């Protein structure tokens, strides 16, 4: 059995997948104070559902939110920055661009390292040689020892091309401070721009001690129970060892969403769909991404909580709209939803765990989209009376009827998610109508038909196990390593060798990605080519990409390589197509839709392949609820996935 566990803001999901296609799933409320407790509880429930012992688990893949939550909450390790003299404030200075063009009061997040913990070092690397005073390094080590830091980020000018000085400083610091985590910029990010490289390294240093402690605790508890040590999902969509993840916490900032993107890819390919627009709506946030030709889009530059992250990662947009997002009235009297969430504790009011504020989940319960008799994860049940009381309090503040307020909460949440979906499609010249919409997460299928209608999408695929698809994606993921070099366009083979060595397993796939630009441009475009690709081939591929992206080529412009990234993958687990389990109970229910009450079919259980039904209908699946609005019809595929088409 293969085990995948994904930690979300509200629920922790576990999937046990056998190689014959059988799935056993479990959900339990996340334990924010100690995520490992929720992880182990979810594993226990999944093992019980499968009726097997822990020693039957062959591999354990984990998607964690430890680093993400620490970054969002500002809960980082006490970190020092060592930088070239004159550049200690490079992260605080940034790009000197406003945080928001039209809001002069908006500010960038403060640096993770305060001014008193930034230490200069007299060094230079250049074409005429290098300079680094040994005595200065010894003095630096003493100053850092006296500062009582938990982590150190070393960011030297030109280290992406000449890492020698960073290695020398690291050797001295490790000898003097063996327990302190040290992140070297050339090992974290090969970005030649010192601000992006510095900010990413600072983030890596500040997060790694927290992740190391969490993974050590989780691994110890797994050993006690006879479970394998967890492999950890990286933002790039590949698994790495717990030790490697702990060494570079910044590589896991998108750990959970990456698992969801891989699960969506798996479900899409199983259904024979190569172009898919995905949205993963959980309890706290919504993550969206695009799958083109069966591959999830990737990038190497993004911002997390307002901070740059110059690392390979799946191209995922996140907004604060989830089932637990709280509806509220702003100072102008307008209805708002999120980004604040009820989280796992106390959760939505309908969970009867102490929540009093109205959430998206409460709105669905009030409107009848989530039948009040439904049992959710690990004993959590729904109470419509409590949900209605919470929504009614907000309705009075807005001057609306409770049903209208509930509709408004869902409409505002939809608008937030539509903005994210348009950011990865329309804003980039992609027509969403050419894609199939694939919703997943505990709340995603409730919004699928409404979102598809707004985007003009004609087909929806709701995969089996859609409520725990991120965990399934983790269980089916392959190990991956990336090695990036700056300015070294001709030295591809050493990068490949480094990536292969770090993978430590048989390589089944390799990829070389070149980041190129016209000389003078301040941005790059990435293209794939072989390690032996000649210069004219790289130019042609770059100019074709430039024309697709911006509509023109500069025939006279000089093309230059900025970075080269070698990526290697190990073998992914071989899973059979998921087998669908028949057995549904059909009744009827009443729901509120578009200002009126409708009678809808209520289908409880997992529909069998070949079943068909039309909206309005509610499918109460084992780990999610699918709302089919009027005007849509559904058919169950051989895998158990539900395909919806507009009538």
Structural summary, described in words:
With 647 residues, this protein is of the alpha+beta class. Among the domains are: 132 residues, no CATH class; 90 residues, no CATH class; 90 residues, no CATH class; 68 residues, no CATH class. The protein contains 16 helices and 35 strands. The strands form ten sheets. It has a six-stranded mixed beta sheet. Strands 13, 14, 15, 20 and 23 form a five-stranded mixed beta sheet that branches. A hairpin with a 2-residue loop joins strand 7 and strand 8.
Count of beta strands: 35
Give the % helix.
Answer: 25-40%
- Tell me the number of helical segments per DSSP (H or I, 4 or more residues long): 16
Describe the oligomeric state of these chains in a short phrase: single chain
Termini distance?
A: 40 Å
| Silhouette | globular
Major β-sheet annotation: 6 strands, mixed
In terms of DSSP E residues, the strand content is 25-35%
The low-confidence runs, each spanning 5 or more residues with pLDDT under 50, are none
Strand order of the largest sheet: 3-2-1-4-11-12
The radius of gyration over CA amounts to 25 Å
Mean pLDDT: 90
Derived structural class: alpha+beta
């Amino acid at each position: 059995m293969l085990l995948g566990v994904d930690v979300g803001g509200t629920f922790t999901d576990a999937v046990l997948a056998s190689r014959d296609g059988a799935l056993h799933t479990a959900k339990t409320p996340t334990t924010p104070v100690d995520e490992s407790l929720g992880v182990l509880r979810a594993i226990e429930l999944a093992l019980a559902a499968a009726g097997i012992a822990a020693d039957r688990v062959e591999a354990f893949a984990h998607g964690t939110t430890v680093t993400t939550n620490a970054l969002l909450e500002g809960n980082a390790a006490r970190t020092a920055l060592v930088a070239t003299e004159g550049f200690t404030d490079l992260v605080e200075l940034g790009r000197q661009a406003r945080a928001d063009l039209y809001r002069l009061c908006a500010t960038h997040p403060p640096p993770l390292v305060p001014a008193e913990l930034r230490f200069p070092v007299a060094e230079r690397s250049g074409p005429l040689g290098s300079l680094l005073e040994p005595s200065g390094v010894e003095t630096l080590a003493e100053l850092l020892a006296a500062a009582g830091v938990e982590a150190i980020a070393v960011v030297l000018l030109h280290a992406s091309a000449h890492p020698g000085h960073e290695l020398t400083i690291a050797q001295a610091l490790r000898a003097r401070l063996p327990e302190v985590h040290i992140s070297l910029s050339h090992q974290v990010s090969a970005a030649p721009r010192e601000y992006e490289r510095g900010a990413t390294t600072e983030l890596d240093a500040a997060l790694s001690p927290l992740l190391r402690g969490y993974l050590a605790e989780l691994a110890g508890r797994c050993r006690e129970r006879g479970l394998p040590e967890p492999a950890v999902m990286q933002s790039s969509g590949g698994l790495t060892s717990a030790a490697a993840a702990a060494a570079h916490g910044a590589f896991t900032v998108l750990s959970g969403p990456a698992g969801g993107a891989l699960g969506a890819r798996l479900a899409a390919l199983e259904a024979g769909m190569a172009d898919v627009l995905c949205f993963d709506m959980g309890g706290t946030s919504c993550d969206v991404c695009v799958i083109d030709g069966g591959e999830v889009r990737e990038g190497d530059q993004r911002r997390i909580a307002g901070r740059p992250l110059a690392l390979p990662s799946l191209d995922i947009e996140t907004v604060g709209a989830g089932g637990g997002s709280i509806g509220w009235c702003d100072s102008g009297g307008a209805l708002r939803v999120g980004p604040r969430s009820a989280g796992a504790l106390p959760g939505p009011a309908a969970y009867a765990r102490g929540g009093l504020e109205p959430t998206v989940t409460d709105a669905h319960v009030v409107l009848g989209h989530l039948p009040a008799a439904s049992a959710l994860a690990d004993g959590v049940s729904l109470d419509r009376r409590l949900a209605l009381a919470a929504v009614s309090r907000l309705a009075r503040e807005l001057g609306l009827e409770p049903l209208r307020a509930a509709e408004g909460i869902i409409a505002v949440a939809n608008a937030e998610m539509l903005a994210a979906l348009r950011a990865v499609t329309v804003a980039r010249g992609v027509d969403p109508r050419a894609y199939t919409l694939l919703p997943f997460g505990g709340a995603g299928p409730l919004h699928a038909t409404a979102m598809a209608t707004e985007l003009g999408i004609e087909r929806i695929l709701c995969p089996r196990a859609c409520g725990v698809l991120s965990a399934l994606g983790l269980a089916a993921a392959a190990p991956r390593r990336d090695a990036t070099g700056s300015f070294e366009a001709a030295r591809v083979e050493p990068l490949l060798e480094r990536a292969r060595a770090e993978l430590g397993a048989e390589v089944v796939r390799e990829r070389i990605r070149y980041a190129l630009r016209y000389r003078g441009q301040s941005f790059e475009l990435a293209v794939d080519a072989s390690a032996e690709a000649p210069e004219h081939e790289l130019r042609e591929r770059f100019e074709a990409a430039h024309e697709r992206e911006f509509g023109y080529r500069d025939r006279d412009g000089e093309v230059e390589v900025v970075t080269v990234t070698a990526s290697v993958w190990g073998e992914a687990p071989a899973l059979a197509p998921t087998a669908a389990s028949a057995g549904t109970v059909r009744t009827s229910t009443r729901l509120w839709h578009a200002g009126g009450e409708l009678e809808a079919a209520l289908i409880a259980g997992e529909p069998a392949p070949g079943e068909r039904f039309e909206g309005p209908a509610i499918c109460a699946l084992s780990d999610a609820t699918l709302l089919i609005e009027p005007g849509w019809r559904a058919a169950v595929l051989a895998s158990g996935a539900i395909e919806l088409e507009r009538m």
